[in-house]
Amino acid sequence: VTLLDLLRDRAGLTGTKKGCDHGQCGACTVLLDGRRINACLTLAVMHGGREVTTVEGLADGDTLHPLQQAFIDCDAFQCGYCTPGQLCSAAGLIAEGQAKSSDDVRELMSGNLCRCGAYPQITQAVTQVMGIEGKPGEGGKPFTTGPVLT
Amino acid sequence: MNPFTFTQASSVDAALARLALPGARPIAGGTNLLDLMKEGVMRPDELVDINGLGLDAVEETPGGGLRLGALARNADTAYHPLVRARYPLLSAAILAGASPQLRNMATNGGNLLQRTRCYYFYDVGTPCNKREPGSGCPAKDGLNRLHAILGTSEHCIATHPSDMCVALRALDAVVGVRSTRGTREIPFADFHRLPGDRPDLDNTLEPGELVTHITLPDAGRFAAHSTYLKVRERLSYAFALVSVAAALDLQGGTIRAARIALGGVAHKPWRVEEAEASLEGKAPGPDAFGAVADIVLRGARGYGQNDYKLTLARNAIEQALSTAARGTDYAKGEQR
Predict the structure, then answer these.
(1) Average pLDDT, chain B
(2) In terms of CA atoms, which chain A residue is nearest residue B335?
(3) A25 contacts on B by Cβ (under 8 Å)
(4) Is this model's pTM higher than 0.90 or not?
(5) What digits encode the pLDDT tens for the residues B42-61?
(6) Cβ-defined contact of B38 to A38 (cutoff 8 Å)
(7) Nearest CA to CA, how far is A26 from chain B (Å)?
(8) Among A63, B37, B108, B218, which one has the highest count of C-beta atoms within 10 angstroms of its own C-beta?
(9) CA distances from B53 to B8, B79, B135, B215 (A)
C-alpha cells in the first residue's frame, strides 16, 4: 500500500489528495522527516519509524500555519483540491532554503499543478511568507528555451 | 498491482543475495518503479528495499574527482557544495529534471535505471518490443513526437528520459556495480545500450548486479564553461524534447577540449567524440559550432512527428555551445 493510500484510507487523513496517483500533479505532497515527497510513489512499509507531516499537521492548534494564512490572504486557490499539496510543498521549499527569488519559487513549486490556474496568487503567498519580492507576474522573464542552470 | 514479496535488506551482501533470485528487483526512491508497477508494465516477484544500506555519501576521490553514492538522493547530489563547485553541469542537469518532490525521493542509481516514457511502453494495451519482446513497435508509424532520431532500430525508437545521465555521459562518469560474483566498473558510454534487436534491455547490467556508486573523474577544466540546455514543452517539470550538455575547456580564445552529449534523441545519452575532437584548436563561434552539430547528428532520421528534432537538435547544440563559451556564470544568469 502506498503512503498516500495509508494516510487516506487507513489513517483517515483525507487532507492529502489523490490527484493523478502517478507523481505528476503534486496533490499528494507530504513532508517525510521534513522533506517534501509524493506520497503516491512510495510504499508505506518503507517508512517505519519516520515522521510524516500532512496538511492536517501544519497548523498549531487553532493558529494557522503562516502559509495557510497567506493562501487565504492572497486568495491562492479556486477549487482548493491542489491546496494541501501546495501548502506542504511550500513548507518543504522554505525548509530547503534554495529559493531566493519569485522566479526560484515558481521553478521550485513546479511539481504542484493547479488546474484552476491560481499560480500567481500561490507564488505571491509563498514569497510573502518568505519575505521576498513576489507580486504576480513580476520578475519573470518571457518564455525562452534558454539554458537552465542552478 | 500484482502481488509481490517485500524484504528490507540490512546489508549490501543480504541485498545481493536476494537480488540474485529471478524476479527480484531493488527499490530505493521507487518513483519510476512503483508507477510502472501500478500500470502493470513491471511485475517484480520481490522488491528488495535497499534504502537502509547507506551508499549515500558524496566523497572526494584521490584523483580530484567525486564518488557519488548510488543511494544519494538526486536533490542532495545536485545541491552538494562539491558537485556545484566542480560539476556545475551535473548540478544543472539534475535540477532540470523532474520536480523537487521527486528529486528528494529519487536516487542516483535509480536515475540511471529509469525506463523510457514512450507512450506505447506504458500502455499495456498496445504492443511494445521493450515491454514484450517480439510484439512490435507501434511508435515507428504512430505517435512518435517524443521519440529518437539517432541510434534507433526497426524494433524500438524509444529515448532514455534522464537529464542527469546526459551530464554523466559528458563528464565520463564510471558506474560501480556489485553482485554476489564481485564488483565491476562500467564506463558510462557502455552502461546504457542502443535498442538493436533487444530493446527490452536498457543497459548492460547483468542479473543480480546492484549499482553502488558513480565515479566522476576530475573535470576542473570544464567547470568555467559548461551549460545544460533543456528544450521542453513547458518551462519546468517536463521531459526533454532535446537536451544538450555542453562543456568547453577554453584557454585564451581557443578551444582545447569540448564535451557534447545529447538527451531526448536516442536510447542512451548521445555523444560523438569525433565531433568533439573537431573543435580542438578552433575559436568558439557559429562556424565551428554549426560544423560540429552536423557531425554529432550524422545519420539522424525522423519518423514523422519527430522530424522537428533534426532542426531542434542542431540549433540546441549551437546554442548550448555558445552559451558554454560565454561561461558557466553567464549560463546561470540566463536561467529561464
Answers:
(1) 97
(2) A148
(3) none
(4) yes
(5) 999 999 999 999 999 999 99
(6) no
(7) 8
(8) B108
(9) 10, 22, 38, 18
Q: With contacts defined as CB-CB under 8 Å, which chain A residues touch B318? A: none
Answer yes or no: do A147 and B229 touch at CB < 8 A. yes
**Do the Cβ atoms of B235 and A143 come within 8 Å?**
yes
Amino acid at site B330: Y
Q: What confidence tens digit (pLDDT) does each residue in B143-201 have? A: 999 999 999 999 999 999 999 999 999 999 999 999 999 999 999 999 999 999 999 99
Question: What is the three-class DSSP state of B86?
Answer: helix
Q: Give yes or no for a contact between B153 and B198, defined as CB atoms under 8 angstroms apart.
A: no
Give A38-41's long-range contacts (Cβ < 8 A, gap of 24+). A38/A111, A38/B31, A38/B101, A38/B102, A38/B105, A39/A2, A39/A3, A39/A4, A39/A7, A40/A2, A40/A3, A40/A4, A41/A2, A41/B29, A41/B30, A41/B31, A41/B34, A41/B35, A41/B102, A41/B105
Distance from CA of A75 to the nearest CA of B (A): 24
Q: A106 to chain B: which residues are within 8 Å by CB?
A: 236
**Closest Cα in chain A, distance from residue B208 (Å):** 21
Grid coordinates of B119: 507512450
In this complex, the residue of B51, B100, B105 whose CB is nearest that of residue A93 is B100
Report how far residue B109's alpha carbon sits from residue B117's, in angstroms, rounded to the nearest whole number.
18
